[in-house]
Design brief:
4 helices; 24% helix; four-stranded mixed sheet; globular; alpha+beta; 142 residues; two-stranded antiparallel sheet
């Protein structure tokens, strides 16, 4: 699924965005449908973790939140605008998701890694945040 324009210039439809780096502990009422941050540690090395984080940081901001959040793994750190949402039109994540995936040895879904690598670490332009279907798709994560 892609949110934005298809090859003919028509808007595509949206049913669901795939979450990456969104954990149940990020919410006041923990969400059992999301993975646990503390259970997401891995011994696997992701050689291009920095490039994946750059990809995530350069995606389209879809919902800005000016509030900082405390790093759940290092309470001495604060993450600016942590609950803000970003997307590449297929996947969705929070600003603090990028922080966690860049700074801790956490699992990154293989499907997301394949997607990012296939896009040469550059999110596709054209995410249409004004599309009402996009609003429906992000509601689950905010």
């Amino acid at each position: 699924m892609t949110i934005g324009l298809d090859m003919s210039g028509e808007q595509s439809t949206v049913s669901e965005l795939k979450p990456v780096g969104i954990y149940r502990e990020m919410y006041r009422k923990p969400r059992t449908d999301l993975p646990s941050l503390r259970d997401s540690y891995t011994d696997a090395t992701i050689e291009d973790r920095d490039l994946v984080a750059q990809y995530m940081n350069s995606a389209t901001p879809i919902f800005d939140v000016a509030a900082d959040v405390t790093d759940l793994l290092n309470p001495a750190q604060s993450i600016p605008s942590g609950p803000s949402l970003l997307s590449d039109g297929e996947w969705i994540w929070r600003a603090d998701s990028v922080h966690y995936l860049a700074n801790y040895p956490l699992t990154i879904p293989p499907q997301f890694l394949t997607h990012v690598r296939a896009n040469a670490y550059r999110p596709a332009p054209g995410v249409d945040v004004a599309n009402p279907l996009f609003d429906d798709a992000i509601t689950a994560y905010f």
